[in-house]
Design brief:
Largest sheet: 4 strands, antiparallel
CATH class: Alpha Beta
Structural class: alpha+beta
Number of strands: 4
Helix content: 25-40%
Order of helices and strands: EHEEHHEH
CATH topology: Alpha-Beta Plaits
Strand content: 25-35%
Shape: globular
Strand order of the largest sheet: 2-3-1-4
Number of domains: 1
Distance between the termini: 21 Å
């Protein structure tokens, strides 16, 4: 069974803080990618709302995410952003299997 977890984190910067927020977020990319369990860690900026930033992440397990949240660079990022964000949403997601075998073994296709 695949326990890979995907994370979508949506951050909205206060007006006038967009560039500072981007710099802080960028500083977290490389150290996060170097962590054990990190499979992907990419930062995006909204085209329509320049103060909105989105991380798309893939982690090998929930434990890897929990460890990530204890890392110095993550805590530094969180502390630095505390007064610069209007909103922050973090979704932890697991993929729903799409193969016919997985559907039949779950009782959906009988």
């Amino acid at each position: 069974m695949n326990h890979e977890i995907r994370v979508v984190a949506v951050l909205l910067a206060r007006e006038g803080k967009e560039d500072q927020v981007e710099q802080i977020l960028r500083a977290c990319i490389q150290p996060s990618r170097a962590e054990a369990g990190c499979l992907a860690y990419t930062l995006h900026r909204s085209i329509d709302q320049p103060g909105q930033f989105v991380f798309f992440e893939r982690w090998s397990s929930r434990e890897a995410i929990d460890l990530h949240r204890q890392m110095h660079h993550y805590k530094t990022l969180s502390d630095a952003l505390i007064d610069m964000l209007i909103d922050r949403k973090v979704l932890l997601l697991e993929e729903i299997p799409n193969s016919p075998e997985s559907l039949s073994s779950s009782g959906i296709m009988s």
